[in-house]
Amino acid sequence: MKSDIQVCGEWESRHDRPVYTLGETCPACGAAAVNVAPAPFDPADPHGEYRRRAKRRARDDGE
Ligand SMILES: [Zn+2]
User: How confident is the chain (63 residues) per 10-residue block, as mean pLDDT?
Assistant: First the structure.
């Protein structure tokens, strides 16, 4: 069954955690929502998750 749940397409840069919605835009920031099914990272890049975390931490340190 296809899920109707979508997630803010820019939550990584705008929110601390994924913002889910049933609509087509993020209810928190208005960015386009994307289906949660597609992998948000390249499966061939095993360091993608680590890199995103490092980026988020660096941003938090700067504020
Ligand atoms: Zn958002």
Answer: 83 96 96 79 65 71 62
